[in-house]
Amino acid sequence: MFSLKVALSFGTLLPLVHLAAGQAAEWGQCGGIGWAGATTCVSGTVCTVINAYYSQCLPGAVTPAPTSTTPATSAPPGTTSTPTGSAPGGLSSIPASTLFQISNFGSNPNNVGMFVYKPKTVAAKPPLIVASHYCSGTAQAYFTGSRFAQLAETYGYVVLYPNSPHSGTCWDVSSNATLTHDGGSDSLGIASAARYAIANWGVDANRVFAVGTSSGAMMTSVLAGAYPDIFKAGIVDSGVADGCFSLPGQPEDSWNSECSEGELILTGAEWADRVYAAYPGYTGARPKMQVWHGTVDTTLFPQNFFEEVKQWTTVFGYSSTPISNTSESYLPSGYSNATFGPNFQAILAQGVGHTVPLFEQQYLEFLGIA
Ligand SMILES: *[C@@H]1O[C@H](CO)[C@@H](O)[C@H](O)[C@H]1NC(C)=O
Ligand SMILES: *[C@@H]1O[C@H](CO)[C@@H](O)[C@H](O)[C@H]1NC(C)=O
Ligand SMILES: *[C@@H]1O[C@H](CO)[C@@H](O)[C@H](O)[C@H]1NC(C)=O
């Protein structure tokens, strides 16, 4: 039931993203199983079959143009859903402008799937965005249902899309292992891929970011708490506070209905302690955070928004009263943007359920990319 709700509400976003014109844009999707959008491409681009689920408008030719001189692997279009089965190597070994699966990127106890999207033109010392999907979603679905990859073509950052290994494809945000720095489970697999990218792809370690929707938003909070040394900012779309789903001793990936229903009410100090406990002894900077939530969310109740506000204002030592709380011209009416300080903004969307639509361009501004 939960998965169904997520799938339906997220699905409503897709027409906004894809149906702007009769022809798909450059880098846009133009076919694949389940695809109902445009099947022709704007002029100068060719609709190219990447795999059974995904065809993409590629500029000019039938094969994506690699950015660097010689790709180490001559991976043709069609490898999207096929594990490479080997270490991913340097960024030049990743084919451009396609969703490409990597493996052997470091400690990954739960075998989290990992996909990378490298734009045609990569910025010097590119930023990295880790984009985590919702329950019932996949890396592929979040890739096609969001504009992170499309905007990477403009701004030159690299995207990692993790893929949940669990039945129902939620993330483990409940076990002690996942909630703890280098403790194991899903979060460690994701952190390992980010570390790999920093060490081997020339990614700017000061511009590594996490974003996610629903379960992926909860994972984003977990990554912010357990891996503040890696992630410099997090954007949480319809999630919960870090540690809210904690159920130590229960199986990994357990559902915490006390939290989801907004009944876990803690003080700011108690919430901050969950962040500190995620990485004992860590004294460095914390990732800046932006959280979004709808007031009629019946999957992760809106009280979770106010618990997130308590958590991050306490962590940053901000007043619980926002400096400003205003509408924004680019957002639908009923959205309020509460700013508590340079490192924390909380956007509440009146009348919006689960989940708040993505505002990728604004996220990039918050992340300092756009
Ligand atoms: C949580 O996990 C960490 C890392 O594995 C471990 O050191 C710690 O003892 C665990 N705490 C509990 C309460 O199980
Ligand atoms: C910002 O203001 C709106 C009303 O305009 C209110 O509903 C919301 O709770 C406020 N946000 C915060 C974080 O206090
Ligand atoms: C919220 O307001 C602050 C301060 O005006 C602004 O810098 C920020 O971009 C706004 N955030 C959103 C999500 O619009």
TrEMBL record:
UniProt cross-references to PROSITE patterns, sorted A to Z: CBM1_1, CBM1_2
Keyword Hydrolase recorded: yes
Broad class of where this protein is predominantly found: secreted
GO biological process, one term: xylan catabolic process
Family label: Belongs to the carbohydrate esterase 1 (CE1) family.
UniProt enzyme class: hydrolase
EC number, as in UniProt: 3.1.1.-
Subcellular localization, as worded in the UniProt entry: Secreted
Keywords carried by this UniProt record: Carbohydrate metabolism, Hydrolase, Polysaccharide degradation, Secreted, Serine esterase, Signal
GO cellular component: extracellular region
GO MF, one example: carboxylic ester hydrolase activity
Domain of life, source organism: Eukaryota
Residue ranges occupied by any CBM1 domain in the UniProt entry: 22-58
Role description: Esterase involved in the hydrolysis of xylan, a major structural heterogeneous polysaccharide found in plant biomass representing the second most abundant polysaccharide in the biosphere, after cellulose.
Name of the molecule in the record: Carboxylic ester hydrolase
Pfam families membership: CBM_1 (PF00734), Esterase_PHB (PF10503)
Source organism of the structure: Ganoderma sinense ZZ0214-1
Alphabetical list of SUPFAM superfamilies matching this protein: alpha/beta-Hydrolases, Cellulose-binding domain
InterPro entries, A to Z: AB_hydrolase_fold (IPR029058), CBD (IPR000254), CBD_sf (IPR035971), Esterase_phb (IPR010126), Plant_Biomass_Hydrol_Est (IPR050955)
Region Disordered, residue ranges: 66-88
Gene3D superfamilies named among the record's database cross-references: alpha/beta hydrolase
Secretion signal, residue range per the UniProt entry: 1-22
